[in-house]
Amino acid sequence: MQTSSLWQSGSRAVVGSGEPPREADFVVVGAGLLGAMCAYWLARAGSSVVVVERHAVAWGATGRNSGLVIPTTAEAYDQAVLRLGAPTAMAIRQLAAEGAGLLGQVVEEEHLTAEYRPGVFLQLATGEEDAASCLADIEATRRHGFEAAWLDRDQLQPRIGTRLSDTIPGAMMLPGATVNSVALVDGVAAAAQRHGAIICTGVAVEAIRAIGGGKVSVETSHGNITARIVVAAVNAWLSELFPLLGKVIRPVQGQLIATQPMPAMFDCGMAAQVTAHGEYWQQMPDGTILLGGCRSVGAPVTDATAQVPQPEVHQALQGILPSLFPDLTEIGVQRGWAGAMAFTPDWIPIVDEIDESLWAVGGFSGHGMPFGASIGKLLAAHLTGGSPLANLTHLRLDRPTLPDPEAEQLR
């Protein structure tokens, strides 16, 4: 078990400066997918942009995930419709769908080498009750104009390069993609640099405060930066900058393993609910399988321990593939790691101006890959040209689905 992911341990495309300039139109705090995408679109619009990151590009949740791009809500879509109402659920789903498409567009336009593979995503049903849940999800999805289909066992087995467990009756099929998340964010950050953005790594933000005249001061370990607008995109660590956000954003540990290279079996992203919160994986082009989940097996974590893998979760992850595919009895593991995701009480991200010229973004609840692309572009368009926030209005702090009444104090 390690404190960095398989992708983070490889060669990196972006090496940032440690000395930020003293002024910029925009300061983006955090260099994960959302921060990189926001900086990319701001720079493309001709703005001066500085990205400050206290560690490295893609150091946090983006660089530690499984690289699945699933254009749907963080919870089952039919449940999101029941809880949020159809208009809100549809808006969130559309935002995810647009983000998935935009991700592929940026990869193509900027010629990024990120092992990006568009295709489908398969949610395996682990029993008849689970199959009924998948069918309900499919029905709600298709009723609202999104793509989904059911594959029965006979249709599913030819898509899998190993024998299915007898307990699997079929799978829900959605659009999807897989990607090397670190290579992706490195590539987006490098593209942002080509458009004029300045990336500063190893720079810690100590405070952010309004100083009058429509200006914000970002106080860092390497001096202060004066900006017109600041976008804080540090996800699970937002409460360090804005303590009241700790009431609506909760850090949750995600843990993964990387197997030794195995014969080709899985040509798309997949998931199955073996434990309470579900498991998910992709097989990389070299045969390595990245698999995450089993977080219900471990102990709750805090920010201070989120990057430290738990042995019991590591052990549980090694049993997932054999439980679903009985011929996979030998699973060699080359690396295990953990990272902090950020969850909100209603499983919807937060995008809002929490003070004049100060925006906070986070709380992707484990589904940040499609949202990072679309939110980054929409927010940049709003901040540079006053474009309407469109679907982002559903992500405000004063939305009715955030149950904490003190959230009103944040506006």
TrEMBL record:
Domain FAD dependent oxidoreductase: start-end pairs: 25-381
Assigned keywords, A-Z: Oxidoreductase
Coiled-coil region(s): none
Pfam families: DAO (PF01266)
Single GO cellular component term: cytoplasm
Protein's name in the database: FAD-dependent oxidoreductase
SUPFAM superfamilies the UniProt entry points to: FAD-linked reductases, C-terminal domain, FAD/NAD(P)-binding domain
